[in-house]
Amino acid sequence: MVDVTPADAVPPAEVAEMELYHPHSWWTKYVFSQDAKVIAIQYSATATAIGLVALVLSWLMRLQLGFPGTFDFITPEAYYQFITMHGMIMVIYLLTALFLGGFGNYLIPLMVGARDMVFPYVNMLSYWIYLLAVLVLVSSFFAPGGPTGAGWTLYPPQAIMTGTPGGQEWGIILMLVSLILFIIGFTMGGLNYVVTVLQGRTRGMTMMRLPLTVWGIFTATVMALLAFPALFVACVMMLLDRVLGTSFFMPAVVEMGEQLQHNGGSPILFQHLFWFFGHPEVYIVALPAFGIVSDLISTHARKNIFGYRMMVWAIVGIGALSFVVWAHHMYVSGMHPYFGFFFATTTLIIAIPTAIKVYNWVLTLWRGDIHLTIPMLFAMAFIVTFVNGGLTGLFLGNVVVDVPLSDTMFVVAHFHMVMGVAPIVVIFGAIYHWYPKVTGRMLNETLGRFHFWVTFLGAYLIFFPMHYIGLMGVPRRYAEMTDVTVMTESAHHLNSFISIMAFIVGFAQIVFLFNLIWSIRHGREAGGNPWRATTLEWQTPQTPPAHGNFGKELPIVYRWAYDYSVPGAKEDFIPQNMPGTFGPSREPA
Amino acid sequence: MSVILVFLLVIAGFAGWWLSHQRLMTKPWLEQGVAEDFVPFDRSGLPTAKIGLGVFLAVVGCLFALFTSAYFMRMALSDWQPLPMPRLLWLNTGMLVLSSIALQCASVAARKRQMDTVRLGLVAAGLTAIAFLIGQLMAWRDLTADGYFLASNPANSFFYLITGMHGLHIVGGLVGLSRTTAGAWNGARPERLRLSVELCAMYWHFLLFVWLAIFALLAGWAATFIDICRQLLT
Q1: Where are its TM segments located (chain A) (predicted)?
Q2: For B30-73, what is each residue's pLDDT tens digit?
Q3: Per-residue pLDDT reduced to its tens digit, A309-356
Q4: Residue B147: is it exposed, middle or buried by C-beta count within 10 angstroms (0-12/13-18/19+)?
Q5: Which of B2, B9, B43 would you mutate first to test chain A, the one with the most A CBs within 10 A?
Q6: Are A225 and B12 within 8 A, CB to CB?
Q7: Which domain holds residue B156?
Q8: Is residue A95 part of a domain?
């Protein structure tokens, strides 16, 4: 196994440009492209489109919650369908696909100094299977009975029974098939992201010189490759329960006085499988965000990242720990108390590496030359939001606090803060940061600032009151609560207020989309490196980078990714591919 | 969920070993210049395709470990009635072993550039793998003929599910194998052919290992083994 074929023995710096697949027609260049950058844009556009659907669904839910009884077309069934599809789309088809399929595809090859992903053809297949998964998902809106209304966790037995929308119709089947397709497609892409980081790095780019963005995406992909099979297993088994009448998850059920054919199955088994995927999923979305935020903060504060090694260790540590905390989503499933104790402990331990990361971000900002650019604003918004969401996570990680709060809006507010708003503001920051590289033009500054302030303040005005009504005892998952004692008049008013804010924040996103499209033509010319950043993607000969990324010769890396404001250097940043020794701190101690 | 946790522990061991070679303790801000001066172990010398297949096999292993976990959890419930193992499965196991051996021979021959042996090995491996699949289908038919239907008991459901999933992976492997075989006849570059044959062999050995594990699981030996482990531990 030690001897290698000659083609692989050549160091990447000398790999000729000819090795790449070159498109021959318009179709293979823009549609069935094997270029990771094109695939990244395809992934991002598809994820954004389906994300808009989920945004509209959240509006419809807020219409019902804020103004109950006003809109006849929002029946309880429809409300549950909105909840389910909103959750599933946002978590999987938007966030996972955008961070790994979108940013992963665009940034990994450029940042590690590769011409493309290592298996471009498989990478292309990955996108098309993802698109198919999205289409199957969308088709469930038009199927008889509509999409499934089982809740985004799809808990059996209710998920496949008559009372649930889509349970005995097409909804749940299409949902499960779509998830299975998504996982197959993702595995194809994920193999590429991991192996490209392992094998595609250019000369001099050691693991410890990688930008933290790559570390975050790399670790998240490894986690996703190991966690998604759990969802795959759960989906296949539930599909068999629903279609062929097996009893993996289905206990004996008497429905309308009639005994169903299922017998003896275990709904808890599904919960274990689902959350074995579901908890790592939180970090699959969070780790790329952690990595991207580190780079945004360092670049826009013109200062090296504080504690790079700690940041890497924390990313790896969080990734490993996140596999042994899944049952904290199941405190109310009637588990053994010692079991709950174990999972509460592991859950709280995760707070340590996470806190290290937060301290390091703050210490990077400390006495930095902070430029309040839009990416920086979003990055700082992330720190605040993530700390907020993390703190309520400490509440909910404890069994005794979680049990009474578990079914209230407090939980909804918590996970929207930590897993909704926090990663989304990073995505926005990242788009404002890398848009100039993708298109060659800057996004409009005024519209951007408007977008930031409305989104940031608006998100807080939505989710802060939601914590409060949760603590008042207002339950989640209810389509309508008009005459219940917990729904005091003030809770009603707050609900209406939240709904109005949700509309305003939603409209700010339409301004953002307009900005994205308008700036392709009319944005200010950006040049190759508008943020004066050090990482390799800003050092490409063309902007946007051409097929093959780096022209004739691949860059050689001489330093880590955070050489900002080095004393003695001519400029306040030194690109990774610039040779030479700078700075007084470089003498061996 | 203990099976999957043990599996992940193994993966974590690999990851830890690899990470320990990545110089996580260095201070990258102090090191300038081309990294080759201070990095003996950077990229692996293995071909990229092999690393890719290795990562994929980890995912496949994860999938089957999860099925096994679910199997043990569902087994603990009261309605579980084990089903008899068709004798045919032993023959099928033999077929799959032969298939693996044939590919191993092909892989050795490819290293020595003996093209005829390579072709023979590839065809033999393909035929025995197809024989395995047909044997599995016949085992299914025997079981249904004896009244062990998919939905009548969870033990049956798991049997069909897990063997079916394994069979699908063999079918996927056959696609790769047939492309390699076509390459062996159409005169692919020797290094390239050797790599494809080695990849096929790696995949085949892994699926043989998975099959032996799930055979032990479905026949009930794995449960006995775990019971013994549990008694030793408590």
Answers
A1: 38-60, 80-108, 128-150, 170-191, 212-240, 282-298, 310-332, 338-362, 374-397, 409-432, 452-474, 494-518
A2: 888 776 655 544 566 788 899 999 999 999 999 999 999 999 99
A3: 999 999 999 999 999 999 888 888 888 888 888 999 999 999 999 999
A4: exposed
A5: B43
A6: no
A7: 83-233
A8: yes
| Residue-by-residue DSSP string for A217-275 | HHHHHHHHHHHHHHHHHHHHHHHHHHHH---SS----EETTEE-S--S--HHHHHHHHH
Per the model's pLDDT, the better-predicted residue between A67 and B232 turns out to be A67
Residues B25, A309: C-beta atoms closer than 8 Å: yes
- Cβ–Cβ of B32/A586 closer than 8 Å? yes
Q: Decide: A145 and A169 in contact? Cβ < 8 Å.
A: yes
- Tell me the mean pLDDT in the region A182-208: 93
A114 shares a domain with A237:
no
Q: Across the interface, which of B66, B78, B150 has its CB nearest the CB of A230?
A: B66
Number of domains in chain B: 1
**Which of A196-205, A211-220, B183-192 has the least mean pLDDT?**
B183-192
Count of domains for chain A: 4
Show residues of chain A in contact with B107, CB under 8 Å: none
Its domain, for residue A419, covers 372-526
The predicted pLDDT at position A12 comes to 47
Average pLDDT value over all residues in chain B:
90
Same domain, A522 and A544: no
What residues have CB less than 8 Å from A2, skipping those under 6 apart? Answer: B45
Residue A145 half-sphere exposure, CB side, CA atoms within 13 Å?
19
User: pLDDT tens digits for B123-140?
Assistant: 999 999 999 999 999 999
Q: Is residue B17 one of the residues assigned to a domain?
A: no
Average pLDDT, chain A: 90
Q: What is the CATH number of the domain that holds B94?
A: 1.20.120.80
Q: What is the dihedral of CA A133, A136, A137, A141, to 10 degrees?
A: 170
Contact A5 B154 (CB under 8 A): no
Residue to substitute from A199, A276, A304, A360, interface B, most B β-carbons within 10 A: A199
